[in-house]
Amino acid sequence: xxxxxxxxxxxxxxxxxxxxxxxxxxxxxxxxxxxxxxxxx
Length: 41
Hints:
By secondary structure, this protein is mostly helical. Helices cover 51% and strands 0% of the residues.
């Protein structure tokens, strides 16, 4: 596994969501970060 400092924004978002889900917290990516991930820039 990459360290957090080596992750791109998409990998970081997936990491945060998976860690929150382990604690029973569902999350939704929204706003500018979401645009960055899905526009592949």
